[in-house]
Design a protein that fits this description.
The chain is an alpha+beta fold. It has helices at about 1-10, 15-40, 150-155, 160-175; strands at about 50, 65-70, 80-85, 95-105, 105-110, 135-145. About 35% of the residues lie in helices and about 20% in strands. The mean pLDDT is about 90.
Length: about 180
């Protein structure tokens, strides 16, 4: 298969090869523009996230793809599912708002995973007891079950990620349409 792909590349003239490379560039830049557009429309720095653990079962399962919005004028409510980032952690967490604490016009809140026995204070930064609106990446508005398993497999098996990317690149370069 690889030999056939390399043979196909050798048979291309320079113009065809440049055209294929530009096509790949256009696909990548289109995907980035769509992502940035979704960020603007949803108000979220990450409009789509994958649930990485079973802490929100039965509401969401590992691999579910969540669609988020984060409009600042909408107040956080008890029972709402939020995605938040905590200082010192790279990966956002998907949990439900358990309690609100209002003081002098500022709203703080406490979260908990539906499948967890205790609240999230152990997950927050050291000395942090409550989350603030600035910690919220987005609020769950919809989901597609298990679609994100592809992302999980790619992260758990990095070689698979590279194999898929190489196959896609070879296909795009060799395919002449």
């Amino acid at each position: 298969m690889l030999e056939a792909a390399l043979d196909g590349l050798r048979r291309m003239n320079k113009r065809q090869l440049i055209y294929q490379i530009l096509s790949v560039g256009m696909i990548v830049s289109s995907a980035l523009m769509i992502w940035k557009g979704l960020m603007v429309v949803t108000g979220s720095e990450s409009p789509i996230v994958v649930v990485l653990s079973g802490s929100m079962e039965p509401a969401f399962h590992r691999g579910d793809l969540l669609f988020l919005t984060n409009y600042p004028e909408e107040p956080v409510r008890v029972g709402e599912i939020v995605v938040f980032k905590v200082e010192g952690r790279d990966i956002p967490i998907v949990h439900r708002v358990l309690k609100l604490h209002e003081n002098n016009g500022t709203v703080k809140f406490l979260t908990k995973g539906d499948n967890n026995s205790v609240d999230d204070r152990g997950l927050y930064a050291q000395g942090q007891l409550w989350l603030h609106a600035k910690d919220v990446v987005g609020r769950a508005r919809g989901f597609l079950p298990y679609v994100g398993m592809v992302t999980i497999f790619m992260n758990e098996y990095p070689k698979l990620k590279y194999i898929v990317l190489i196959c896609l690149a070879v296909y795009v370069l060799v395919h002449r349409e």
